[in-house]
Write a structure and sequence with these properties.
Layout lengths: L16 E5 L15 H6 L1 H7 L3 E4 L3 E2 L11 E5 L6 H13 L3 E6 L9 H9 L11 E2 L22 E3 L5 E3 L14 H16 L4 E4 L29 H15 L2 E4 L6 H6 L8 E2 L2 H5 L4 H15 L7 E3 L8 H4 L20 H17 L3 E5 L19 H5 L46 H5 L5 H14 L8 E3 L6 E6 L3 E6 L12 E5 L13 E6 L1
Bound molecules: alpha-D-glucopyranose.
Length: 536
């Protein structure tokens, strides 16, 4: 095996490739239709062969699964659908044997309505200390029949629900996800304890869900469109929480990645100050259209906003909340916008796949760490889910106008010829979401045997990224290039060229062609929507 370059042995998170596992849809070890930890354990060799450094698991805790596990009933218990705490501990240990670190997902903004605290709060009634851990308020209007304020939801629909005794409680997401009151000492203490609980079990990092939403303006004032300050997004007090979390992580050498959706780059960078979070997801890159100027601007802005706080950038193309890359890039509007996600948006699958391949090489050549959502390495498209099988609350809360996020959460195809494409669900039982009938072509076994498949491209690119000293963390420099072409150099002679123009382009001078996302033209030029890694 080739030597691993030294930057990889220290501050691993600065240039790691982190694979996102959505446990429900990765592999079904016990054949009940839902993916589980046994399924992940059985496929750790697959992840090692793919060449990832770490795995981030979306929530695996006890949960009614109203919002795919982002409604946590107990942080110290694994949901029986996924396994047991013992399975999780074994998984963490076995992953380490494969050289893979584990990142867990913590959801501090809210809990499930089945969490012991919320049940106690409902039972204890108005004015009780139990209610103070949440945001309970009397309603407005003559009889308290109106919600306490006008806050917009993070999903469509209401943010307040009234309980039988007349009080209302706040939930930025679904009613089954009551928001916690972060001014309450119990809330802070409990989460610090949960962090220790998982660090003690050997996890290397924690992803923080909805990380900019925790603290609310103490008066819960109405939201005013266009006002400077938002009453619940990015309150200044939130940084105090992350400073105390950082001290805990440091004691275990653990790292954080924050889910911070903020358009203002200066505000975003505050979360990455040296005594706060190590990294945060780069959603501007994820949302960016497949357009050379927008991409270049987003890359420059990203690097510029991270530099003053010395934090590495992250590069993200997809996750469990957004349209699959191959589908998005095949649409006329290649950017990502929740509001524009609609049923039946036409896509050109061949074009989308070509661009997704080029985007993989672009992303993996940029300085920083990379998040790879399960199934992206297979080039999976967004699946059409029949309406009567949709599970995502986003769909229902939009009144059925938004198809929701299930189309990117479909169980993975492992074997072209097996029932449930080798996901593990036997005949007679159906996977929790239906797999499209034509997915045999995306199956791992079929792609493994194909030198031109998306899986082979990812395996090769990740292998090069592990061994080439120019890839990962470090500087980059734009090279002169024609219209519509992105070309940049990394250290040690690595050059990445992406052709987003409609015509073929000449490659810059090079001594070796390391990898291309698709075949070069017979004349040696780089075709449209194709990327190349070169050695100068
Ligand atoms: C985050 C998660 C998403 C979830 C929401 C509420 O955005 O990624 O899946 O629905 O938070 O917890």
């Amino acid at each position: 095996m080739a030597a691993v370059h030294p930057s990889r042995t220290h501050e691993w998170w600065r240039d790691a490739v982190i694979y996102q596992v959505y446990p429900r849809s990765f592999a079904d070890g016990d054949g009940d239709g839902t993916g589980d930890l046994a399924g992940v354990r059985a496929n750790l060799p697959y992840l090692r062969q793919l060449g990832v450094d770490a795995v981030w698991f979306t929530p695996w805790y006890l949960s009614p699964l109203v919002d795919g596990g982002y409604d946590v009933a107990d942080y110290r218990t694994i949901d029986p659908a996924f396994g047991t705490l013992d399975d999780a501990e074994k998984l963490i240990a076995e992953a380490a044997e494969h050289g893979i670190k584990v990142i867990v997902d913590i959801v501090p903004n809210h809990v499930s309505d089945q969490h012991a605290w919320f049940r106690a709060a409902l039972a204890a009634g108005p004015g009780s200390p139990e209610r103070e851990r949440f945001h309970f308020r009397p309603g407005r209007g003559e009889h308290g029949e109106l919600p306490p304020n006008n806050w917009p939801s993070q999903f469509s629909g209401d943010t307040w629900t009234r309980v039988p005794d007349g009080e209302w409680y706040l939930h930025l997401f679904t009613p089954e996800q009551p928001d916690l009151n972060w001014n309450h000492p119990d809330v802070r203490r409990e989460h610090e304890d949960v962090l220790r609980f998982w660090f003690e079990r050997g996890v290397a990092g924690v992803r923080i869900d909805s990380a900019a939403l925790l603290t609310k303006h103490p008066d819960l004032p109405d939201f005013t469109e266009g006002a400077d300050a938002h009453p619940y997004i990015d309150q200044d007090e939130i940084h105090d929480i992350y400073r105390s979390w950082r001290a805990i992580a440091d004691a275990y050498d653990g790292v954080f990645v924050g889910e911070v959706w903020l358009p203002d780059s200066e505000r975003f960078a505050r979360y990455l100050r040296p005594d706060e979070l190590h990294t945060a997801f780069n959603f501007n890159f994820l949302a960016c259209p497949w357009d050379p100027d927008s991409l270049r601007r987003t890359i420059d802005d990203t690097l510029a906003e991270h530099a003053p706080v010395h934090a590495p950038a992250t590069w993200v193309l997809c996750n469990h909340d957004v349209t699959r890359t191959a589908t998005r890039y095949g649409r006329e509007d290649t950017g990502f916008d929740f509001a524009k996600k609609r049923f039946g948006t036409p896509t050109d699958p061949e074009l989308g796949t070509r661009r997704a391949r080029a985007a993989a090489l672009l992303t993996l050549a940029l300085p920083g760490s990379v998040y790879l959502y399960q199934g992206e390495e297979l080039g999976l498209p967004e699946a059409d889910i029949p309406r009567d099988r949709i599970q995502d609350p986003m769909h229902f809360r939009s009144g059925g106008t938004d198809p929701g996020r299930d189309g990117c959460r479909v169980p993975l195809p492992w074997k072209a010829e097996a029932p449930s494409f080798g996901f593990g669900t036997p005949p007679g039982t159906e996977p929790w979401l239906p797999q499209p009938a034509d997915w045999a072509r995306y199956a791992v076994d079929r792609q493994s045997a194909d030198a031109d498949s998306m899986l082979t491209l990812y395996r090769t690119a990740l292998g090069l990224r592990r061994t080439h000293p120019g890839l990962g963390d470090g500087p980059m420099r734009w090279l002169p290039a024609g219209d519509g072409v992105l070309a940049f150099a990394r250290e040690h002679g690595l050059i990445c060229v992406v052709n987003l123009s409609p015509a073929p382009v000449e490659l810059p001078a090079h001594s070796a062609l390391l990898l291309t996302s698709g075949p070069l033209d017979p004349a040696g030029t780089l075709p449209p929507d194709t990327a190349a890694w070169l050695q100068a």
